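pls design
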C-alpha cells in the first residue's frame, strides 16, 4: 500500500531559535524551518503498536527504516521499509523475522542496515533463558534486498544466559559487518557481581564470526553504543563506568587491523549509582566526526557535542546544544559542513523532540522543536540520518496505539 506525504501541524512544529548569521568562511547557511510545512511528514507502513524505530542510509541516499511490531500469538516481528533518494513515499513493509521469545525494550532497539548492492544485515534480541536479562544478539543477512534472510547468527560465543545487546553495526569494504555490543558474560555466576563489558566481532558474508574481541572490561550496563566509519577504520563511542561510578563517554578506534585502548572523550564527572539509559551517538563524513551525548553531571542536565576534523584523533571543547531541561536520548548526523543533533527535552506538559544545527566550527546555527511527545519510556529514542540532499527523522508516537512517524528536511539551497 502506498502512502502520501502529509504536513506536520502548526501546533507540532514551531521555531525556538534560529541563528540569522552566516559564518564567514564556513559556507554553511542556517536552515529556515519557520514555516509549518517546512518539515513534511511521511506516513509510514508501520502498524498499530509499533515502536523502537531505527534509521540507516546507503551511499545512494536510500533510507531504511526498521521497527518492532506486535505479531499476536507469534510474539513480535522486525519489519522495515525503504525511502529511495528523491522520493517522498515509503515502500511497503517487509518482515525480517518474528518470534515469541524476543527481548523487546524501549532503549535497546533492533536495526536493518545496507551492506552493498542488495545485501542487507539486520539484528534483534532473543531470550536465552528464564531470567529477565538473559538474552542474546541475533544477526541475519539478506542478499536480495530483504526478500529472504539467513538463519540467525550469534556473534558472541560465550553461551552464558546473560545480557547481550545495545548493538551497533557497520558495513565494511570487504562485505563483512562490524558489530559491537554490550556483553554480560562476566556477570554470570558469583551472584552476578562481574562487570558489563564492550565486545566486537566481524560477521563475514558466509555467516561466520571472526574476533569476538574485548574492547573495554567495565562499561555502563544499559546505555547505547554507537559506531561510525572513518577513511582508515572505525570509531566506537559508549558510556564507561569507573570504580567510583563516574559514567562519562569513552571512545575506541580501529585502525590498521588493531583496536586502540579506551580513552575518555568527556570528563563531565557524572557520578551516578545506576545506569542512566542514555548512550552517546557518533557520525562521520570523511575525516569530519561529531559525537553528541547527554550528561547530568553537577545536577545540570545538558546535551553536549564535540567535533573533529582529523578522524577523531582530536576533538574541540564540548558545545552545549540543548535549550534547557533535556531528557537526552540523542542522535547526531555529521555532514560535510554542519552537524545535526536530535534529542528530547522536558516540558510542563510532557516532552518535545528537538533538532539543532551546528556548523563545522561549533557555532549553533539553529534549534527547533519538531513535535510534542511524551517523556514516557515508550516514546523511545528519536532517530535521524541524511546526506547533502535531505535529513530524515523518525520517532515513536506513544499515544495508544503507538506508531512510528517520520519527517524529511530538504537541504537543497543550503551550502553543505
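designed seq:
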Amino acid at each position: 500500500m502506498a502512502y502520501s506525504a502529509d504536513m506536520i501541524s502548526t501546533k507540532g512544529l514551531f521555531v525556538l531559535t534560529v541563528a540569522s548569521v552566516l559564518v564567514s568562511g564556513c559556507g554553511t547557511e542556517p536552515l529556515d524551518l519557520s514555516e509549518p510545512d517546512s518539515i513534511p511528514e511521511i506516513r509510514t507502513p508501520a502498524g498499530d503498536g509499533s515502536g523502537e524505530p531505527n534509521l540507516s542510509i546507503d551511499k545512494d541516499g536510500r533510507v531504511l527504516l526498521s521497527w518492532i511490531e506486535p505479531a499476536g500469538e507469534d510474539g513480535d516481528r522486525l519489519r522495515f521499509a525503504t525511502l529511495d533518494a528523491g522520493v517522498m513515499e515509503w515502500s511497503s513493509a517487509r518482515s525480517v523475522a518474528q518470534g515469541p521469545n524476543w527481548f523487546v525494550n524501549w532503549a535497546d532497539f533492533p536495526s536493518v542496515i545496507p551492506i552493498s548492492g542488495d545485501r542487507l544485515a539486520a539484528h534483534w534480541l532473543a531470550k536465552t533463558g528464564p531470567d529477565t536479562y538473559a538474552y542474546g544478539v541475533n544477526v541475519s543477512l539478506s542478499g536480495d534486498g530483504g526478500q529472504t534472510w539467513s538463519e540467525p547468527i550469534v556473534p558472541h560465543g560465550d553461551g552464558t544466559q546473560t545480557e547481550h545487546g545495545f548493538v551497533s553495526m557497520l558495513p565494511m569494504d570487504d562485505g563483512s559487518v562490524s558489530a559491537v555490543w554490550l556483553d554480560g558474560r562476566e556477570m554470570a555466576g558469583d551472584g552476578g557481581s562481574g562487570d558489563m563489558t564492550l565486545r566486537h566481532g566481524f560477521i563475514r558474508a558466509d555467516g561466520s564470526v571472526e574476533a569476538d574481541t574485548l574492547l573495554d572490561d567495565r562499561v555502563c550496563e544499559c546505555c547505547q553504543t554507537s559506531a561510525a566509519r572513518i577513511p582508515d577504520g572505525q570509531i566506537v563511542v559508549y558510556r564507561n563506568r569507573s570504580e567510583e561510578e563516574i559514567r562519562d563517554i569513552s571512545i575506541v578506534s580501529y585502525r590498521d587491523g588493531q583496536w586502540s585502548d579506551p580513552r575518555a572523550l568527556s570528563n563531565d564527572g557524572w557520578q551516578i549509582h545506576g545506569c542512566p539509559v542514555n548512550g552517546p551517538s557518533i557520525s562521520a563524513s570523511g575525516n569530519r566526526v561529531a559525537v553528541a551525548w547527554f550528561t547530568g553531571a553537577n545536577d545540570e542536565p545538558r546535551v553536549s557535542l564535540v567535533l573533529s576534523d582529523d578522524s577523531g584523533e582530536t576533538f574541540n571543547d564540548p558545545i552545549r546544544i540543548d535549550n534547557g531541561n533535556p531528557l537526552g536520548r540523542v542522535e547526531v548526523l555529521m555532514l560535510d559542513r554542519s552537524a545535526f543533533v536530535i534529542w528530547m527535552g522536558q516540558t510542563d506538559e510532557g516532552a518535545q523532540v528537538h533538532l539543532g544545527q551546528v556548523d563545522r566550527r561549533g557555532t549553533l546555527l539553529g534549534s527547533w522543536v519538531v513535535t510534542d511527545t511524551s517523556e514516557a519510556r515508550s516514546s523511545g529514542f528519536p532517530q535521524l540520518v541524511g546526506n547533502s540532499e535531505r535529513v530524515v527523522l523518525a520517532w515513536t508516537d506513544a499515544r495508544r496505539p503507538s506508531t512510528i512517524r517520520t519527517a524529511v528536511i530538504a537541504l537543497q539551497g543550503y551550502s553543505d
